[in-house]
Design a protein that fits this description.
The structure is a single chain. The protein has helices at about 25-50, 55-70, 85-90, 95-105, 115-130, 140-160, 175-220, and strands spanning about 1-5, 10. By secondary structure, it is mainly α. It has two domains: about 25-70, no CATH class; about 80-220, no CATH class. The protein starts with a strand and ends with a helix. Keywords: Membrane, Transmembrane, Transmembrane helix.
Amino acid sequence: MAGRDATGGLIPLQRRPRRGRGGLAQRVAFIAAANLIILIAAGIVGGVVMPLGMFGALAVMMLMAAVTLAIAFAPAPATPVPTPERIARSELKALPMQTARWLDAQRPALPAPAVTVLDRLDQRLDTLGVQLAALDEDSPAAADVRRLVGEQLPDFVRDYQRVPAPLRGTSRNGRTPDQQLIDGLSVIEREIGEMSTQLAQGDLDTLETRSRFLEIKYQGE
């Protein structure tokens, strides 16, 4: 995968592994099921048809090893990239992950200097996704998150993508569209960080209260 440098040329982008949560457990389950089927089939053949013997047992072990390797190293199935319209309709707790996946797919068309900001955004969205699991969908905070993460962020990136590529490095009113994109993404990244801090405030207050209680209870003894 590649991004554009300041002259419009392609340069390689470093991407960290994306969100295949559950993929490892699924592969392990497939491996276990396949090997169990092989063992059952070998037992039936050895008990009903003919004894397997040493070479038969070796063949079974080799087959199990081959199946294990084939499943372990098989390429993961491609997951469709969510559209901005689908993102806007996502459940609140799934919203950050969907937006992050969409952003990841846009990287090849974005300027190379934006990669650092996108990496920070990705981390912010990971943190926010965990916090949203306990947030009421109908709360004002949920509406703010949905507006920024599900609507304004994708719309901002799409506005940049509509600018013809030859004009993205051309200065207009003192800034190029490339710089406007980077600055805007930085603002959104900081705002998501502020949202995470506000959502964590209740947990921080609880932790502080419990810490003071423990200090009073045990340091006074």
